[in-house]
Structure prediction request, 218 residues.
Amino acid sequence: MKFFVDTADTAEIKSLAATGLLDGVTTNPSLIAKSGRKILDVIAEICALVEGPVSAEVAATEYDQMMREAAVLRKIAHNVCIKLPLTPDGLRACNTLSKDGVQTNVTLCFSAAQALIAAKAGATFISPFVGRLDDIGQDGMKLISEIVDIYSNYPALQTQVLVASIRNPIHVTTAAKLGADVATLPPAVLRQLYHHPLTDKGLAAFLKDWEGTGQTIA
Ligand code: G3P
Prediction:
């Protein structure tokens, strides 16, 4: 399973890239707003930090303007992935861009039917939002299961399932059990994956016993 980080905070991305766990980055207009920076600057900086796909979202809602924005964003770096909303215009833009060999991420997916038409539009990634479904009392992971099942019925569909709106490590492991291709994690959730209280307790005991030996290794 690939791990993307869902942030426009370049200090966080730099630090997480050093872990070797990072396969890409996703951003959205809210995350760009939170960074307080200009989108072209922040996406260029992220693309220089990470080799994998960096999702940069269009702000337009109408096809022609989406295509103009996509043209500007894709010029930033070879690893820019154009993020488009799951609307008729967004999927039309996705279809055009994918035919031109551009990586695309179709976002704001909340149903299996939406995921199916995004795949037919040639999306590189489909982003179902699990946390936002859980927030309204629906089962976000049930949607991931449905999409993975549907896509597996049609091997010609190349779209990768990118689980988004992740809130906790259980979302990550459940997505992995279901065979999702990618999880995009908030930095805090990615850091949470390392931790278990028995790891901390066990390491403290090992270090104490080792100290008693008086040895050094290097
Ligand atoms: O970037 C899309 C998605 O991951 C947003 O998550 O937490 O705002 O629902 P969230």
